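Please complete every field before forwarding. Incomplete forms are returned to the sender.

SECTION A: IDENTIFIERS
Entry label: holo-66
Bound molecule: zinc ion
Molecule representation: SMILES string

SECTION B: INPUTS
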Amino acid sequence: MKKTYSYACKDYPGMEECSGQFVAESEDEIRQLIELHARVAHGEEASAWSDDDRAQIRALIRVEQV
Ligand SMILES: [Zn+2]
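SECTION C: PREDICTED COMPLEX
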């Protein structure tokens, strides 16, 4: 069985204006897409994120069985 991982940037508090949405086939891939998006769209370096930031992002990743 396959899973899809999706993330909508606007779900993150303070990012309501952002239209960025991503879908990937693995948690690793979605995490990299989120980090790339944060850098390109928001000028944020993922290496500067706290454990709380990461936990919040992880909680917002939606996993679906397909
Ligand atoms: Zn965004």
